[in-house]
């Protein structure tokens, strides 16, 4: 493939992706001769045909890369899927491997971006900043109903103590929280921060704040459902910046109504695929669960923006250029996603 252009179709492009990838390509001294085609469309079975006349596609969290899409991409000659994110739950890795399509990702771009966002979500809910912000904009300076809680000394349960879990733990430790962790692997960095590993049941029953940082897979889908919610401390806060389907959202909604969950912050949502990353303000959104969540004063919903910082974007773009160039020059793919 060397010497010819390496044509890459970028799906789900936002302005910041186009600028970031173009600048990163310009900055790199050993990049492949990449030619980007930027598309705003999400990748799906109905848009996969747009990947014609290219060797690679570059996709994001809500692009669909299932076996049907992969077959179309394969027929078009696509050899590489470059994810510009860490999670890969939207890719059928087995189908990609069978078709000989490699998958690379950006395993870490700024865990701290998400860690700081969790602190922002927590403090917003604890001090009712979202309520205060709206009130003051209408010159309503009444403080009734704005009594907050102080979080120093509270117990934070981190589920998944990998890169983002530890980055979150560092920020929360700085705010004076005690740290509990649950993970299938124990991370020495978390222990060195003073974190204490517990079983999931113990963590849920002892934590004032539960923050989810494990990937979405068959074993973690609906990790938080009615039976695990019942084990949570009454009035505990729940924060999810990982993937929407870690929560059985209806069960969480029921627990918010009963008061068993004291507050909820979600940056990800099970039904986000057809909603997030677009302006839907003029549309009728048919999602009764989301509408009910939005109506509650102790719920904060954001549209998958925890990753979105200056540092993270620069890293995502630099690493994506590296991943594409490594494939083009047949260098080892250090960020290849193992189908196993
Ligand atoms: P990571 O691989 O470094 O850490 C994940 C941790 O989860 C690992 O320690 C792993 O052992 C653990 N884990 C796996 N299965 C588990 C289980 N069943 N129970 C408990 N722990 C389990 O990944 P990371 O970089 O920390 O990212 C975590 C997740 O955050 C990603 O999978 C992604 O879904 C999400 N994410 C969201 C955003 C956002 O903008 N909202 C940004 C980046 C990543």
Automatic annotation (TrEMBL):
Alphabetical UniProt keywords: NAD, Oxidoreductase
Protein name (Swiss-Prot/TrEMBL): D-lactate dehydrogenase
Entry-linked SUPFAM superfamilies: Formate/glycerate dehydrogenase catalytic domain-like (SSF52283), NAD(P)-binding Rossmann-fold domains (SSF51735)
Pfam family, one: 2-Hacid_dh
Domain D-isomer specific 2-hydroxyacid dehydrogenase catalytic span(s) in chain numbering: 35-337
Domain called D-isomer specific 2-hydroxyacid dehydrogenase NAD-binding: residue spans: 120-306
Record-linked Gene3D superfamilies: NAD(P)-binding Rossmann-like Domain
Highest taxon in the source lineage: Eukaryota
Coiled coil: none
GO molecular function, one term: D-lactate dehydrogenase (NAD+) activity
Family the UniProt entry places it in: Belongs to the D-isomer specific 2-hydroxyacid dehydrogenase family.
Enzyme Commission identifier(s): 1.1.1.28
Keyword Oxidoreductase: yes
Organism: Galdieria sulphuraria (Red alga)
Leading EC class: oxidoreductase
Positions of transmembrane segments: none
């Amino acid at each position: 493939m060397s010497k010819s252009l390496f044509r890459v179709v970028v799906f789900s492009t936002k302005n910041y992706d186009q600028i970031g990838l173009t600048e990163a390509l310009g900055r790199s001294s050993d990049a492949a001769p990449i030619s980007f085609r930027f598309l705003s469309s999400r990748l799906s079975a109905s848009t996969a045909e747009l990947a014609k006349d290219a060797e690679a596609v570059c996709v994001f969290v809500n692009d669909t890369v299932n076996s049907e899409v992969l077959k179309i991409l394969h027929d078009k000659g696509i050899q590489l899927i470059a994810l510009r994110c860490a999670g890969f739950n939207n890719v059928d890795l087995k189908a990609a491997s069978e078709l000989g399509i490699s998958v690379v990702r950006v395993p870490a771009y700024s865990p701290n971006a998400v860690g700081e966002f969790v602190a922002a979500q927590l403090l917003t809910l604890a001090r009712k900043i979202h309520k205060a912000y709206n009130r003051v904009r209408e010159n309503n300076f009444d403080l009734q109903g704005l009594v907050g809680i102080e979080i120093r000394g509270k117990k934070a349960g981190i589920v998944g103590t990998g890169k983002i879990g530890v980055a979150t733990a560092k920020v929360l430790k700085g705010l004076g929280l005690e740290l509990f962790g649950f993970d299938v692997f124990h991370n020495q960095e978390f222990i060195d921060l003073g974190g204490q590993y517990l079983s999931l049941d113990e963590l849920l029953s002892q934590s004032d704040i539960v923050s989810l940082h494990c990937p979405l897979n068959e074993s973690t889908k609906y990790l938080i459902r009615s039976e695990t919610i019942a084990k949570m401390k009454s009035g505990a806060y729940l924060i999810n910046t990982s993937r929407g389907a870690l929560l059985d959202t209806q069960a969480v909604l029921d627990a918010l109504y009963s008061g068993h969950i004291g507050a909820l912050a979600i940056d990800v949502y099970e039904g986000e695929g057809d909603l997030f990353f677009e302006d839907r303000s003029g549309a009728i959104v048919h999602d009764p669960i989301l509408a009910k969540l939005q109506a509650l004063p102790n719920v904060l919903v954001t549209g998958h923006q925890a990753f979105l910082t200056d540092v993270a974007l620069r890293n995502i773009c630099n690493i994506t250029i590296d991943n594409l160039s490594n494939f083009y020059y047949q260098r080892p793919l250090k960020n290849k996603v193992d189908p196993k």
